[in-house]
Automatic annotation (TrEMBL):
Family annotation (Gene3D superfamilies): alpha/beta hydrolase (3.40.50.1820), TolB, C-terminal domain (2.120.10.30)
Entry protein name: Peptidase S9 prolyl oligopeptidase catalytic domain-containing protein
Keywords per UniProt: Hydrolase, Protease, Serine protease, Signal
GO MF assignments: serine-type endopeptidase activity
One GO BP: proteolysis
Classification lineage: Bacteria, Pseudomonadati, Pseudomonadota, Gammaproteobacteria, Lysobacterales
Domain Peptidase S9 prolyl oligopeptidase catalytic: 447-657
Length: 660
């Protein structure tokens, strides 16, 4: 595919370099609706039939409570995820929103609010310029709350009485994420934080006169503060150690003391994990509520009556739910929950129940409700698994493999979840796919994956899902091990995983594939660049192919956030690093078969990142499958698109990894 003449100078220079490479391969192009595919064969009907049930699994994630005790859930019955209401255990799901685009960012109004409803966000074609809308549960009317322009808005938050709504938006200059406060009754909206950078609102004080806010720099660096909404004065809190990560921040019932999550030093001692803390500035009382849990606190929520607090810890990728009484901080006994990963969670308006989203490797997301007094867990949604026998789904095991460097004189180990097909005949070696998460400040957890289940049960393929260095969930030091000039150390962790695979008697080291999206897509390309002799094929979804062109072309509101992680492309030092590590600059080293998939409207990793790596590899005489959706962004949200991509991916593995 020819590069557009409007591409930046760095990308054009790259295309000139590739002009001296081998003759490019021929391209078979097909356009169907919003789908553009190149060199992708027709999908066999037999494969589509096998995939059909796996592609018709669905989940239902908790999104909020209504004042009468119903729950709002996000689920998909047609093309995209929409808001539904459920009013009793395993009750009917009443669909409330009906849009061709998925809705998200759902925030229900508090029980004391004059109007009852919820706020939701919606963009166009995956461009992520989300606008906020109000859905009125009484009238069923929908109204636009934000400017409706090329701005990004989200993080809606109500005051306890429902009179005010705070949110973050880029409407002022398209780059900085400011904080706005809206009078719910009149619609009058004013900016309250315009300091520059990426800000978010955390909590209103009980009287609605102050707002806790935070400026996000990176996964390891945030700066909290409070805004007086009458005067507009912003007061930043001191950060112990000068730099730290912060999670949630919320006022206690007295409107003075706060609960928050942070990895600030304690008594001058550095902390690896983010813990839940309590601080009363008036009495100087300070308490670390999770000091005995050597893992991160992923999030917390307070009941509307401020009598209870629930929080979730992330313990080696598994979620653990905790509830404490306030202000005593005494633990509340809970019923046993299924082992898995917890998504959204919140107390009912009366504080007597707690709704949670639960997901496991063998069960998609569903909403459960805990009766706290009775210690009773009830399932409120039962999502479909395409009519498949869920008892045959494969649960992964957690393995750790040694990598190239050491910690305290011993080899560092990398955690990975290992999906192994059941009932493998003795002596058969399994092809294996390495699935690498995005972020890079992300973490793979053992959640339900119809892809992993199809590979295991239908194609006999094992899957390994590593959390290479730079992943969250394993401490501050681990998170920083791939920053800036250390970027390729995480690629070496994939090399170490290839070594581990070669030592496993049931795995076929000659049939290894790599798969990943976003930053994981970069990891796919980088792995092929370094280990094409050991990796047969790779699938890159919305991946970075050149850090300089990526940072130049990503949307302006994201650029400084990404520079904090990857490095600044404007400095000579990082220009040298990026020239060395960017796969598009070394496409001649990619000998494995490659499939690249992209959304045309992606604001994070522009589609030009996909097109330049496709052209570069083809110019070296290698065939590349390329898939572009004109109505998608950073990933594929519409079911028909996701289904086609999934089917094409399975065909790619069949032809280029599994073999006969």
């Amino acid at each position: 595919m020819a590069l557009r003449s409007t591409l930046p100078a760095a990308l054009l220079a790259l295309s000139c370099l590739q002009a001296f490479a081998a003759e490019p391969t021929s391209v078979k192009r097909e356009e169907v609706g919003n789908r553009v595919s190149e060199n992708i064969p027709a999908i066999p009907g037999e494969l589509l039939d096998k995939l059909n049930r796996y592609q018709n699994t669905r989940g239902a994630g908790f999104a909020g409570w209504t004042r009468e005790g119903c729950v709002l859930v996000s689920t998909r019955f047609a093309e995209t995820a929409q808001v539904h209401r459920v009013c009793q255990p395993l009750g009917m799901r009443e669909q409330l929103t009906f849009y061709p685009e998925p809705v998200g960012g759902i925030a229900a109004s508090p029980s004391k609010a004059q109007a009852e409803g919820f706020v939701f966000g919606k963009d166009k074609g995956g461009d992520e310029f989300s606008q906020l809308y109000w859905f009125d549960l009484r009238t069923r009317g929908v109204s636009l709350l934000t400017d409706g322009k090329r701005s990004q808005n989200g993080g809606a938050l109500f005051s306890p009485d429902g009179k005010w709504m705070a949110y973050a938006g880029t409407g002022r200059n398209g780059t900085d994420r400011d904080i706005y406060v809206r009078n719910v009754a009149t619609g009058d909206t004013k900016p309250v934080v315009t300091e520059g950078g990426s800000w978010g609102a955390s909590d209103f004080s009980p009287d609605g006169k102050r707002l806790l806010v935070s400026r996000y720099v990176s996964a390891a660096e945030s700066y909290p503060g409070v805004v007086d909404l009458d005067s507009g004065k912003l007061e930043m809190f001191p950060v112990d150690g000068g730099k730290a990560a912060f999670g949630g921040f919320a006022f206690a019932a007295d409107g003075r003391s706060v609960y928050f999550v942070s990895d600030e030093p304690i008594d001058g001692k550095p902390q690896e994990f983010q813990t839940l803390r309590f601080h009363d500035p008036a009495t100087k009382k300070f308490e670390v509520l999770t000091a005995n849990i050597p893992w991160d606190v992923d999030g917390f929520t307070l009941s509307e009556d401020d009598k209870r607090l629930a929080y979730v810890t992330n313990e080696d990728g598994i979620s653990k739910l905790h509830v404490i009484e306030l202000p005593s901080h005494k633990a509340v006994a809970l019923p046993e929950l299924p082992i898995g990963v917890i998504g959204g969670f919140d107390f009912s308006p009366d504080g007597k129940r707690l709704a949670v989203t639960l997901n496991s490797a063998t069960s998609p997301s569903d909403t459960y409700v805990i009766d706290l007094a009775a210690r009773k867990l009830e399932r409120w949604t039962r999502s479909e698994v395409g009519g498949l026998d869920a008892s045959k789904f494969v649960a992964p095991t957690l393995v750790r493999y040694e990598t190239f460097d050491q910690v305290d004189g011993k080899p560092r180990t990398i955690p990975a979840f290992y999906y192994r097909p059941a009932n493998v005949p003795k002596g058969r070696k399994l092809p294996v796919i390495i699935n690498i998460h995005g972020g890079p400040e992300g973490q793979s957890q053992p959640t339900f994956s119809p892809t992993a289940q199809f590979l295991a049960n239908e194609l006999g393929v094992a899957m390994l899902v590593p959390n290479v260095r730079g992943s969250t969930g394993y401490g501050k030091t681990y998170l920083s091990l791939d920053n800036a000039g250390k970027r390729e150390d995480s690629v070496k962790d994939i090399g170490a995983l290839l070594d581990w695979i070669a030592k496993q008697p049931e795995l076929d080291a000659s049939r290894v594939g790599v798969y990943g999206g976003s930053y994981g897509g970069y990891m796919v390309l980088a792995s092929l660049m370094h280990y094409s002799d050991r990796i047969r094929a790779g699938v890159d979804i919305v991946g970075i192919s050149d850090f300089t062109t990526f940072l130049t072309n990503t949307e302006s509101y994201r650029r400084d956030l990404r520079r904090a992680e990857y490095g600044d492309e404007r400095t000579p030092e990082m220009q040298e690093v990026f020239a060395r590590i960017s796969p598009a600059r070394h496409s001649d080293r990619i000998a494995s078969r490659l499939f690249v998939a992209q959304g045309k409207n992606d604001p994070r990793v522009p589609y030009t990142e996909a097109e330049q790596i496709v052209k570069a590899v083809r110019n070296n005489g290698k065939e590349v499958w390329y898939l572009l959706f004109n109505d998608e962004g950073h990933g594929f949200q519409k079911k028909a698109n996701a289904d086609y991509f999934g089917a094409a991916t399975m065909l790619f593995w069949q032809q280029n990894l599994i073999g006969e």
